[in-house]
């Protein structure tokens, strides 16, 4: 009996086992808890819906870090529990709804009748490394379109948080803080815009 095929199969299986044992664990990091809830919102408040545009790497749960203006690296064994585009959209949605300025805020692509449209263009959600150290960076543009199709507000929001080290755990904490702060800033400006348009 020819034992060579059996030996080859055993060697192949052993190689697979050793390779699997040598691979690091995949770690998943969660961010996005806003802690904001909406209650007792009058039904006569206007509705709003949010759409978000983002580069491909921010529309998937990749953790990325930048070493120059021209180079991004995607982590192989670590990722977010949700794509950054969804995280930013959901936190902004919760913040706008909790403000009481809107009776309903959705993340749907379908436009409710008579609703405001918040358009977000997410540009950065990453760790940036330089000679001065590492930082968490969040950058997005937003415009608010009235039910009549007129742009009533637009702004660019940029947040940068210094990191003690390159650990993704610290990056998650920093970006969570940055997104919450950005959502709070945006909500304040939108509330001011709504107040001025109703006068």
Provide structural commentary.
- This protein is of the alpha/beta class and 199 residues long.
- The protein has one domain (25-32, 43-197): Rossmann fold, CATH 3.40.50.10610.
- It has 3 helices and 8 strands.
- Strands 1, 2, 3, 4, 5, 6, 7 and 8 form an 8-stranded mixed beta sheet that branches.
- α2 (84-98) packs across α3.
- The longest helix is centred in the C-terminal third of the chain and has 30 residues, at 168-197.
- The chain is elongated and about 75 Å long.
Strand runs, count: 8
Which structural class is indicated by helix and strand composition?
A: alpha/beta
Q: Give start-end ranges of low-pLDDT stretches.
A: none
Measured as a percent range, the helix fraction is 25-40%
CATH homologous superfamily caption:
ABC-type transport auxiliary lipoprotein component
Quaternary? single chain
Q: Enter the CATH topology name.
A: Rossmann fold
CA gyration radius, whole angstroms? 22 Å
- Average pLDDT score: 86
Proportion of beta-strand residues? 35-45%
Short description:
This protein has 199 residues and is α/β, with parallel strands linked by helices.
Describe the structure using short key phrases.
199 residues; elongated
């Amino acid at each position: 009996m020819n034992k060579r095929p059996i030996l080859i199969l055993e060697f192949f299986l052993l190689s697979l086992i050793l390779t699997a044992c040598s691979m690091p664990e995949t770690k998943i990091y969660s961010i996005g808890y806003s802690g904001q809830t909406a209650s007792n919102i009058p039904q006569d408040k206007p509705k709003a819906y949010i759409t978000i545009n983002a580069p491909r790497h921010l529309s998937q749960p990749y953790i990325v870090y930048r070493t120059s203006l021209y180079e991004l690296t995607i982590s192989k064994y670590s990722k977010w529990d949700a794509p950054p585009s969804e995280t930013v959209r959901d936190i902004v949605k919760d913040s706008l709804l909790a403000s009481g300025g809107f009776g309903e805020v959705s993340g749907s692509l379908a436009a409710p009748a008579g609703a405001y449209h918040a358009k977000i263009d997410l540009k950065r959600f990453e760790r940036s490394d330089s000679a001065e150290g590492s930082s968490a960076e969040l950058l997005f543009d937003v415009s608010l379109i009235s039910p009549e199709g007129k742009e009533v507000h637009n702004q660019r929001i940029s947040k940068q948080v210094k990191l003690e080290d390159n650990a993704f755990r610290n990056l998650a904490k920093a970006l969570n803080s940055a997104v919450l702060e950005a959502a709070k800033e945006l909500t304040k400006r939108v509330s001011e815009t709504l107040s001025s348009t109703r006068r």
